[in-house]
Amino acid sequence: MLINDGNSYNPITGIFTVPIDGVYLLTFTIDSYTETHIKLVTDGIYTSDAVSDPHALRNGFEIIGSNTIIV
What we know:
By secondary structure, this protein is mainly beta. It has strands at 9-10, 15-16, 25-32, 36-42, 45-52, 63-70. The protein has a two-stranded antiparallel sheet with strand order 1-2. It has a two-stranded antiparallel ribbon with strand order 3-6. Strands 4-5 form a two-stranded antiparallel ribbon. The model has no long low-confidence stretch (mean pLDDT 84).
């Protein structure tokens, strides 16, 4: 389920535009069956990433990667 109070997140572009200046705690998670890399970019600057990278013997299983940062 996606909660998008204030409609600050655009699920088509993947862009979240903060409604007011401040400090934000951001958490993002990948749930994938294949190797997946995502990057978090804030104000055009690479900030963090998360990777789901399955072991060769675990193909076909869901792999989860996540990260939490404060910006």
